[in-house]
């Protein structure tokens, strides 16, 4: 798990094809790799990858053909910037929201415009993800935890403050750039609960809630 608070911006050092898969060597930038061990998870542009080789200032991770196809990692080449975050620990402040590192789909930057010292960005999500995105809810864009300002069909807007633009790769993106999106994990589980999962196939209905004690006055039968 991660928080969506980017800890450093790294860069792709090398791409080593392994059949249809790829081994990426990533320069870690200011990310402290001191406590990282082989097999540890690192979020790379919001994609949870496993460190399979380590040096003092870089790590390698294997990326499957499926991940290359479904995320923006397949678009990037040597020298391109990457948002990096180490896995969450029990001592890590939860400054963003709970992020799994499992990308739900590819979005696109639609526009960016000034708003005081900040910028308002508009993104377009795949149609199948739009229903999980809500105003004032959380969403992860290339590994960055953001608050949704508004939703218009499959498009949504966020406000990016100067700090976020400076310390992540988002400031380098332009309209048309593809980004990795991960919706709030709570929305995923809530949909599953409301439709059928865990409720005997009937979804959450008034009858289901009453049968399980919701709305019942304490001490009543």
TrEMBL record:
Keywords: Repeat, Riboflavin biosynthesis, Transferase. Residues 1-97, 98-194 form the Lumazine-binding domain. One of its GO terms (biological process) is riboflavin biosynthetic process. Pathway: Cofactor biosynthesis; riboflavin biosynthesis; riboflavin from 2-hydroxy-3-oxobutyl phosphate and 5-amino-6-(D-ribitylamino)uracil: step 2/2. One of its GO terms (molecular function) is riboflavin synthase activity. Its EC number is 2.5.1.9. Pfam families: Lum_binding. Lumazine-binding repeats lie at residues 1-97, 98-194. It catalyses: 2 6,7-dimethyl-8-(1-D-ribityl)lumazine + H(+) = 5-amino-6-(D-ribitylamino)uracil + riboflavin. Homotrimer. Catalyzes the dismutation of two molecules of 6,7-dimethyl-8-ribityllumazine, resulting in the formation of riboflavin and 5-amino-6-(D-ribitylamino)uracil. This is Riboflavin synthase. It comes from Alkalilimnicola ehrlichii (strain ATCC BAA-1101 / DSM 17681 / MLHE-1).
């Amino acid at each position: 798990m991660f928080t969506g608070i980017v800890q450093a911006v790294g860069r792709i050092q090398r791409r080593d094809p392994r059949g249809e898969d790829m081994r990426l060597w990533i320069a870690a930038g200011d990310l402290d790799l001191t406590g990282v061990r082989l097999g540890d998870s690192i979020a790379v542009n919001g994609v949870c990858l496993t460190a399979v080789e380590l040096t003092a200032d870089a790590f390698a991770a294997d990326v499957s053909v499926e991940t290359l196809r479904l995320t923006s990692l397949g678009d990037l080449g040597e020298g391109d910037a990457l948002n990096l975050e180490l896995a969450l620990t029990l001592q890590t402040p939860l400054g963003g929201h709970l992020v799994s590192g499992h990308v739900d789909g590819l979005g696109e930057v639609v526009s960016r415009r000034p708003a005081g010292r900040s910028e308002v960005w508009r993104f377009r999500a795949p149609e199948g993800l739009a229903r999980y995105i809500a105003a004032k809810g959380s969403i992860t864009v290339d590994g960055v935890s953001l608050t949704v300002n508004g939703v218009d069909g499959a498009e949504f807007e966020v406000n990016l403050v100067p700090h976020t633009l400076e310390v992540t790769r988002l400031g380098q993106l332009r309209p048309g750039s593809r980004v990795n999106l991960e919706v709030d994990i709570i929305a995923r589980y809530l949909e599953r609960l409301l439709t059928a999962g865990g409720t005997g196939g009937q979804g959450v209905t008034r009858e289901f809630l009453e049968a399980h004690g919701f709305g019942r006055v304490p001490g009543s039968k």
